[in-house]
Amino acid sequence: MRTSRDRLLSLSGCGDAATLRSAVSDLCAEFGKLTHLDVVTMSEAEHRRALCFLRLDTPAQEGQLMTSLGAARFGDDLLMVVDLQPASVLTIR
Question: Is 90 part of any domain?
Answer without folding.
Answer: no
